[in-house]
Amino acid sequence: MAPGHSIPIIDLAILFAGKGVKSTIIAPPPDAAHISKVIEKPRNSGYEVDVLDIEFPVVEAGLPEGCESLDKLPSPDMLVKFFLATKLLKRPLEDLIRQHRPHCLVSDMFFPWTNDVAAASGIPRILFHGTCAFSFSAMEHVRLYEPYKNVSSDSEPFLIPKFPGDIKLTRSQLPDFVTQETWFIKLFNEFIESGSKSFGVIVNSFYELEPVYADHYTNFLGRKAWHVGPVSLSTKGITDKTNRGKQSSIDENECLNWLKLKEPNSVIYVCFGSMADFDSCQLIEIAKALEASGQSFVWVVRNEKEKLLPEGFERKMEGKGLIIRGWAPQVLILENEAIGGFVTHCGWNSVLEAVSAGVPVITWPVAAEQFYNEKLLTEILKIGVGVGARKWKRLVGDFVRSEAIEKAVREVTAGECALEMRNRAKRLAEMAKKAVENGGSSDSHLDALIGELKSLSPFNQVSN
Ligand code: UDP
After folding, report:
1. Is-cis flag, bond preceding 230, omega within 30?
2. If we measure between CA atoms, which residue out of 369, 330, 325 comes closest to residue 346?
3. How many angstroms separate the alpha carbon of residue 368 from the centre of ligand 1?
4. Distance between terminal CA atoms of the chain?
């Protein structure tokens, strides 16, 4: 119930259906309406994929009307209420399962109670946590070994213990619920525990991207995992890419025609996903940095921030910068050959979409596991440069000066290692495409998962 989780889940359902497995997506009515449009095309090509409404009683839960998704909450103070309210979905989900009798339930990590729902119906629950093996395992190591307790300040780096790759972080880059007793810690532990009790985990990543960590995930954490991504590569066709997640705020032709006038690898794309936020001072710094970098850019500014852009900036940048207010067709933009760099908050979907498109990144992590994702990009994959964000924040990103942003943009576009980074990114994109092709690693993992599910007795009884 947040775009960063629902978008890949929808892709996943379509992937299952492409393998001849009937899949049904369960979502609250506003999302269900959008999903039914998304699945129209696969359905017309014979895929058995469907969507069912599940009523989310937002008002009963004390949330404002229309807040069926995390990105619609008017204030971060409501997060706790939202997370607790999702438990109200248990009863309606049980009813749907009784009625439709699926053979398997795939559910997001934020719904730990679905383990019990699946167990009561005698079917396996498969967890989807929405990140990669590297970041999930690194987080687990930090949670289990608590290395942040052995440093004397928030800015002193510590090594993640017993974790491949000598990865260092600071306490200030860790989520507050790891280092402090906050309301979220109890919920977070529930998410983790339920994950370890599930049948296995679907990972939206591909084996070749992080082989050491994919193996580590299975061997060290002892989790059964299927790496089936990048799931975004299942979205084909310009219109489908344009409205991926939500209806795009810009006409696809306007966007593509603008990009067509630009040289290959010359445009910087700036977008911080569906949740992260910046105040007006920060937007001014970003504007200054983009102008000073001399690069053309596409900048996605969420609607309500429109008035906070520097006076006259858009007019001054006409032809040089395209500002998209609201929802951008991100996958379509990233895949365009004009894009030469992506300023990203390192949300896992954005990371993987950049990798799939072969675009190097300028990293600016904000929340969730994004500081871990940054490490993967800059230190393991070496396809990015950080702006120097130092502090984990729940939604509003750490303040970064324009000079630091500009420097990172220059390093990625024209620095000493720019070409190497770009070549590495392009190679990864090739690997990603191969992984999802017939017989590729992700395609084979999906086959293996379906095979394993079929071998479970209830699945066999019903399908025979
Ligand atoms: N996205 C998009 N247009 C936008 C903003 C986001 O298409 O204007 C998509 C993006 O392609 C990605 C998802 O929304 O698939 C955001 O997920 P991510 O994990 O990157 O970040 P989150 O929003 O969860 O912080």
Report:
1. yes
2. 369
3. 14
4. 34
